[in-house]
Design brief:
Radius of gyration: 17 Å
Structural class: alpha+beta
Largest sheet: 8 strands, antiparallel
Shape: globular
Low-confidence stretches: none
Distance between the termini: 23 Å
Strand content: 25-35%
Length: about 240
Amino acid sequence: DMELVYEGKAKRMYRRSDGLYLMVFKDEVTAGDGARRDPAPGKGALAAELSALLLRYLEDRGVRTHLVAYEPPNALVVKPAQVIPLEVIVRFKTYGSQLKRMPALKPLQQLRRPLVELHYKDDKLHDPLVLEEDVVEAGIVEEGELAYIKAKALEAAQALRELYAKAGCDFLDVKFEFGRTPQGILLVDEISGDTFRLICGGEHLDKEYYRRTGDAAGLVERYKEMLEKTRRLVQLPSP
């Protein structure tokens, strides 16, 4: 007995009768804020399991997340949270929108220290980059909350970069979202090839591949490879 409360580009969110939520991953891939869309059979299950592995991995490293349980094949049980309308991006190397706004940077330039960016979450505006002062003045977060969010985003990104370095892969950047709960601010949403960039053996195993080629089937193959690598690095506790 579940009620659909939200449908996004990649997921549907259902409220369960016990007050928890079920996040169901769709077999669909989009690019350009949903301008391009293709069916991608099998993608939902791959993104769900990968998210479960990585959220669990971060929990074990002291980053509190909304994950309660992995529900195979393509869903996560999560805690309810009031999502803060910010995308928090952590970059280790220059890529994507960063190069558009600062063309004096070189592609894949190693940043001297990880960069934390805030983007206001709004597809119609294409998630614009905003200043810390903007989001505090707008009442989206308080200064203390913002400091906590930035610290946790850095901690989580660093942990993921170290994890994939063990597989000889280069973790370039990642997008996080956070939500408020009675227990405090938690890391919410998914962590998958839809939300971070990973280069292994000179090749993208993330959504960047689809952005460049429009090849949804090839993307699913890359997500399989990424999941295989991650399973070797992180084990889910047996139920």
